[in-house]
Amino acid sequence: FEPFPYDKLVLYKSRKIDIFNLKTSFIENTIYARNTAYNLFALNPYKKLIYQSDTDIFLIENNTLYKIAHSDIKIDTSFTFNSGKDILYRIKNGMNRILTTSSMKITKLGYYDNVVGSPYLHKLYFVDHGILSVYDMKNGKKKQLDIKCSRITLSPAGNRLYVISKDQIRLISTYTNKVVKRIPISNVKNIIFAKDGYQSILLKKDSLYVIDPITDFIKLKDSYTRYNRIIPLNAKFGYIGVKGHTLLIKTENYSKKI
Predict the structure, then answer these.
(1) Using an 8 Å Cβ cutoff, are 132 and 149 in contact?
(2) How many angstroms separate the CA atoms of 71 and 91, rounded?
(3) Cis peptide before 119 (omega within 30 of 0)
(4) What is the pTM of this model?
(5) Residue 255: left if φ>0, alpha if ψ -120 to 50, beta else—which one?
(6) Highest-scoring range by mean pLDDT, 53-57, 193-197, 237-241
(7) DSSP 150-180
């Protein structure tokens, strides 16, 4: 589901999209999509919906369905950015394209595996041959930031970019594109965030680190190999570890299996 806008929810399953009114507690409209929706976005506050199928991007406005982009190759993923004005979508061969919803203009960004953006940013960050790079929608230009890295992850609020290199994590302000802090942890494979964006967890091959978002100090360290899935806790320094039918809730001073 997606909030849309403020007083409604969009509920979708396969080819059926329902608009649920939170004030009346009734479904006020149902739209049957042409293809299965894999990603669906509410463009607040424009009262528009975007959904991605296998090979198409659709726009829903005033209860009418429009196809606004097509790819002969399957679309791998998509997300909105720049206050809902633009959509980044990547097809299976690795090409990333930018779709501007107002003009339906499509811009080719390039062949990159690791591209990140935020609904609040007019920029896209990506790794280009091991170098951190940025694309700015305001001027339509790419720029290398002269930082070597293997992977990047954006905070949920979009204000900090986590740049992973072999020996450390660099935190970059997305407002200035400057390094504001360094976390001296090496060989990090991925970074995941709690839903509220309050805390992050750094994942290595065999261990994990729970990080304080204010100080960026390590609050908790644990083994990672015993879990199939890690879920960060909101507003708590801890996580839920999932393995088979067992859940482990763990914080700084509490641990319990369920």
Answers:
(1) yes
(2) 8
(3) no
(4) 0.84
(5) beta
(6) 53-57
(7) SEEEE-TTSSEEEEE-SS-EEEEETTT--EE
